[in-house]
Amino acid sequence: MEKTFLMIKPDGVQRQLIGKIVQRFEDKGFQLIGAKLIQITKEQAEYHYAEHKERPFFGELVQFITSGPVFAMVWQGHNVIQLSRTMMGKTNPLDAAPGTIRGDFAVQTGNNIIHGSDSPESAAREIAHFFKPEELLSYERSIQSWI
Ligand code: DAT
Ligand code: MG
Protein backbone atom coordinates (compact mmCIF):
# COMPACT_ATOMS: atom_id res chain seq x y z
CA MET A 1 0.00 0.00 0.00
CA GLU A 2 1.23 3.50 -0.85
CA LYS A 3 2.77 5.58 1.96
CA THR A 4 3.53 9.27 2.34
CA PHE A 5 5.34 11.56 4.76
CA LEU A 6 3.30 14.42 6.20
CA MET A 7 4.57 16.97 8.70
CA ILE A 8 2.67 19.65 10.59
CA LYS A 9 5.05 22.58 10.61
CA PRO A 10 5.93 24.70 13.68
CA ASP A 11 3.11 27.19 12.92
CA GLY A 12 0.54 24.38 12.88
CA VAL A 13 1.83 22.96 16.17
CA GLN A 14 1.86 26.40 17.84
CA ARG A 15 -1.67 27.09 16.60
CA GLN A 16 -2.85 23.78 18.10
CA LEU A 17 -4.04 22.43 14.75
CA ILE A 18 -2.59 18.91 15.14
CA GLY A 19 -5.91 17.34 16.09
CA LYS A 20 -7.92 19.03 13.32
CA ILE A 21 -5.38 18.11 10.67
CA VAL A 22 -5.03 14.48 11.79
CA GLN A 23 -8.85 14.29 11.79
CA ARG A 24 -8.99 15.25 8.10
CA PHE A 25 -6.69 12.41 7.06
CA GLU A 26 -8.54 9.93 9.28
CA ASP A 27 -11.87 11.09 7.85
CA LYS A 28 -10.56 10.62 4.30
CA GLY A 29 -9.90 6.97 5.12
CA PHE A 30 -6.11 6.98 5.33
CA GLN A 31 -4.31 4.94 7.96
CA LEU A 32 -1.77 6.44 10.35
CA ILE A 33 1.19 4.07 10.70
CA GLY A 34 3.76 6.30 12.43
CA ALA A 35 3.85 9.65 14.22
CA LYS A 36 6.02 11.70 16.55
CA LEU A 37 6.49 15.24 17.83
CA ILE A 38 10.09 16.24 17.12
CA GLN A 39 12.39 19.22 16.99
CA ILE A 40 14.31 18.94 13.73
CA THR A 41 17.95 20.00 13.49
CA LYS A 42 19.42 22.47 10.99
CA GLU A 43 21.18 19.54 9.26
CA GLN A 44 17.93 17.57 8.96
CA ALA A 45 16.13 20.66 7.63
CA GLU A 46 18.83 21.30 5.02
CA TYR A 47 18.65 17.67 3.85
CA HIS A 48 14.84 17.67 3.81
CA TYR A 49 14.66 20.84 1.71
CA ALA A 50 17.85 20.20 -0.33
CA GLU A 51 15.97 20.72 -3.63
CA HIS A 52 15.48 24.39 -2.61
CA LYS A 53 19.12 25.01 -1.59
CA GLU A 54 19.70 27.68 -4.25
CA ARG A 55 16.41 29.50 -3.74
CA PRO A 56 16.47 32.94 -2.06
CA PHE A 57 14.08 31.78 0.68
CA PHE A 58 16.16 28.73 1.70
CA GLY A 59 17.69 30.32 4.83
CA GLU A 60 14.30 31.55 6.02
CA LEU A 61 12.75 28.15 5.31
CA VAL A 62 15.37 26.28 7.37
CA GLN A 63 15.05 28.85 10.16
CA PHE A 64 11.25 28.45 10.18
CA ILE A 65 11.11 24.66 10.10
CA THR A 66 13.59 24.43 13.00
CA SER A 67 11.90 27.18 15.05
CA GLY A 68 9.79 24.79 17.14
CA PRO A 69 8.42 21.25 17.29
CA VAL A 70 6.91 19.63 14.20
CA PHE A 71 4.51 16.69 14.11
CA ALA A 72 5.94 14.09 11.72
CA MET A 73 3.64 11.38 10.38
CA VAL A 74 3.51 8.50 7.93
CA TRP A 75 0.11 7.77 6.38
CA GLN A 76 -0.90 4.86 4.19
CA GLY A 77 -3.66 4.40 1.63
CA HIS A 78 -4.67 4.25 -2.03
CA ASN A 79 -3.07 7.21 -3.87
CA VAL A 80 -2.22 8.77 -0.51
CA ILE A 81 0.66 10.83 -1.98
CA GLN A 82 -1.38 12.68 -4.57
CA LEU A 83 -4.59 12.85 -2.54
CA SER A 84 -2.88 14.30 0.51
CA ARG A 85 -1.26 16.99 -1.68
CA THR A 86 -4.76 17.86 -2.90
CA MET A 87 -6.03 17.99 0.70
CA MET A 88 -3.12 20.30 1.65
CA GLY A 89 -3.81 22.82 -1.13
CA LYS A 90 -1.42 24.93 -3.17
CA THR A 91 1.91 26.06 -1.67
CA ASN A 92 0.92 29.74 -1.67
CA PRO A 93 -2.23 30.17 0.45
CA LEU A 94 -3.33 32.88 -2.01
CA ASP A 95 -3.86 30.05 -4.50
CA ALA A 96 -5.06 27.39 -2.04
CA ALA A 97 -8.76 26.61 -2.40
CA PRO A 98 -11.13 26.84 0.56
CA GLY A 99 -11.62 23.36 1.96
CA THR A 100 -7.93 22.57 1.72
CA ILE A 101 -5.71 22.75 4.82
CA ARG A 102 -3.70 25.71 3.55
CA GLY A 103 -6.85 27.31 2.11
CA ASP A 104 -8.60 27.07 5.47
CA PHE A 105 -5.77 27.78 7.91
CA ALA A 106 -2.98 29.77 6.23
CA VAL A 107 -2.51 33.26 4.77
CA GLN A 108 1.14 33.32 3.71
CA THR A 109 3.55 30.97 1.92
CA GLY A 110 6.13 30.91 4.71
CA ASN A 111 3.63 29.78 7.34
CA ASN A 112 1.69 27.23 5.35
CA ILE A 113 1.03 24.71 8.13
CA ILE A 114 1.88 21.38 6.51
CA HIS A 115 4.44 19.54 4.42
CA GLY A 116 3.61 16.52 2.26
CA SER A 117 5.75 14.41 -0.07
CA ASP A 118 5.18 15.28 -3.72
CA SER A 119 6.14 11.98 -5.43
CA PRO A 120 6.83 8.30 -4.65
CA GLU A 121 10.57 9.07 -4.72
CA SER A 122 10.33 11.95 -2.25
CA ALA A 123 7.97 9.92 -0.02
CA ALA A 124 10.49 7.06 0.20
CA ARG A 125 13.35 9.44 0.88
CA GLU A 126 11.47 11.51 3.48
CA ILE A 127 10.04 8.50 5.34
CA ALA A 128 13.52 6.95 5.58
CA HIS A 129 14.96 10.28 6.72
CA PHE A 130 12.53 10.80 9.61
CA PHE A 131 11.51 7.28 10.68
CA LYS A 132 13.31 4.09 11.59
CA PRO A 133 11.67 0.96 10.10
CA GLU A 134 10.56 -0.18 13.57
CA GLU A 135 8.70 3.12 14.11
CA LEU A 136 6.27 2.22 11.30
CA LEU A 137 3.51 -0.15 12.37
CA SER A 138 1.55 -2.63 10.33
CA TYR A 139 -1.95 -3.34 11.60
CA GLU A 140 -5.34 -4.34 10.23
CA ARG A 141 -8.35 -2.05 10.30
CA SER A 142 -11.72 -3.74 10.13
CA ILE A 143 -13.10 -0.81 8.05
CA GLN A 144 -10.41 -1.13 5.36
CA SER A 145 -12.58 -2.99 2.85
CA TRP A 146 -15.14 -0.11 2.93
CA ILE A 147 -12.66 2.62 1.92
P1 DAT B 1 5.31 22.53 -1.02
O1 DAT B 1 5.50 22.74 0.46
O2 DAT B 1 3.91 22.86 -1.46
O3 DAT B 1 5.79 21.18 -1.51
P2 DAT B 1 7.73 23.63 -2.22
O4 DAT B 1 8.34 22.27 -2.11
O5 DAT B 1 7.80 24.33 -3.53
O6 DAT B 1 6.21 23.64 -1.75
O7 DAT B 1 8.42 24.60 -1.16
C1 DAT B 1 8.72 24.13 0.13
C2 DAT B 1 8.38 25.21 1.12
O8 DAT B 1 9.21 26.34 0.90
C3 DAT B 1 6.96 25.77 1.02
O9 DAT B 1 6.01 24.99 1.71
C4 DAT B 1 7.11 27.13 1.60
C5 DAT B 1 8.50 27.54 1.16
N1 DAT B 1 8.44 28.33 -0.07
C6 DAT B 1 8.21 27.88 -1.34
N2 DAT B 1 8.22 28.85 -2.23
C7 DAT B 1 8.46 29.99 -1.52
C8 DAT B 1 8.59 31.36 -1.85
N3 DAT B 1 8.48 31.78 -3.13
N4 DAT B 1 8.82 32.26 -0.85
C9 DAT B 1 8.94 31.84 0.42
N5 DAT B 1 8.85 30.56 0.81
C10 DAT B 1 8.60 29.65 -0.14
MG1 MG C 1 7.68 20.36 -1.70
From TrEMBL:
<dbReference type="InterPro" id="IPR034907">
    <property type="entry name" value="NDK-like_dom"/>
</dbReference>
<dbReference type="GO" id="GO:0004550">
    <property type="term" value="F:nucleoside diphosphate kinase activity"/>
</dbReference>
<keyword id="KW-0067">ATP-binding</keyword>
<dbReference type="InterPro" id="IPR036850">
    <property type="entry name" value="NDK-like_dom_sf"/>
</dbReference>
<dbReference type="GO" id="GO:0006228">
    <property type="term" value="P:UTP biosynthetic process"/>
</dbReference>
<comment type="function">
    <text>Major role in the synthesis of nucleoside triphosphates other than ATP. The ATP gamma phosphate is transferred to the NDP beta phosphate via a ping-pong mechanism, using a phosphorylated active-site intermediate.</text>
</comment>
<dbReference type="InterPro" id="IPR001564">
    <property type="entry name" value="Nucleoside_diP_kinase"/>
</dbReference>
<dbReference type="GO" id="GO:0046872">
    <property type="term" value="F:metal ion binding"/>
</dbReference>
<dbReference type="GO" id="GO:0006241">
    <property type="term" value="P:CTP biosynthetic process"/>
</dbReference>
<feature type="binding site">
    <location>
        <position position="102"/>
    </location>
    <ligand>
        <name>ATP</name>
    </ligand>
</feature>
<protein>
    <recommendedName>
        <fullName>Nucleoside diphosphate kinase</fullName>
        <ecNumber>2.7.4.6</ecNumber>
    </recommendedName>
</protein>
<feature type="binding site">
    <location>
        <position position="9"/>
    </location>
    <ligand>
        <name>ATP</name>
    </ligand>
</feature>
<comment type="function">
    <text>(Microbial infection) Catalyzes the phosphorylation of dZDP to dZTP, when the bacterium is infected by a phage that produces the substrate for the synthesis of dZTP (2- amino-2'-deoxyadenosine 5'-triphosphate), which is then used by the phage as a DNA polymerase substrate.</text>
</comment>
<dbReference type="Pfam" id="PF00334">
    <property type="entry name" value="NDK"/>
</dbReference>
<dbReference type="GO" id="GO:0005737">
    <property type="term" value="C:cytoplasm"/>
</dbReference>
<dbReference type="GO" id="GO:0006183">
    <property type="term" value="P:GTP biosynthetic process"/>
</dbReference>
<feature type="active site" description="Pros-phosphohistidine intermediate">
    <location>
        <position position="115"/>
    </location>
</feature>
<feature type="binding site">
    <location>
        <position position="85"/>
    </location>
    <ligand>
        <name>ATP</name>
    </ligand>
</feature>
<keyword id="KW-0418">Kinase</keyword>
<comment type="subunit">
    <text>Homotetramer.</text>
</comment>
<keyword id="KW-0547">Nucleotide-binding</keyword>
<feature type="binding site">
    <location>
        <position position="112"/>
    </location>
    <ligand>
        <name>ATP</name>
    </ligand>
</feature>
<dbReference type="InterPro" id="IPR023005">
    <property type="entry name" value="Nucleoside_diP_kinase_AS"/>
</dbReference>
<keyword id="KW-0963">Cytoplasm</keyword>
<keyword id="KW-0460">Magnesium</keyword>
<comment type="similarity">
    <text>Belongs to the NDK family.</text>
</comment>
<keyword id="KW-0597">Phosphoprotein</keyword>
<dbReference type="GO" id="GO:0005524">
    <property type="term" value="F:ATP binding"/>
</dbReference>
<keyword id="KW-0546">Nucleotide metabolism</keyword>
<keyword id="KW-0808">Transferase</keyword>
<feature type="binding site">
    <location>
        <position position="57"/>
    </location>
    <ligand>
        <name>ATP</name>
    </ligand>
</feature>
<keyword id="KW-0479">Metal-binding</keyword>
<feature type="binding site">
    <location>
        <position position="91"/>
    </location>
    <ligand>
        <name>ATP</name>
    </ligand>
</feature>
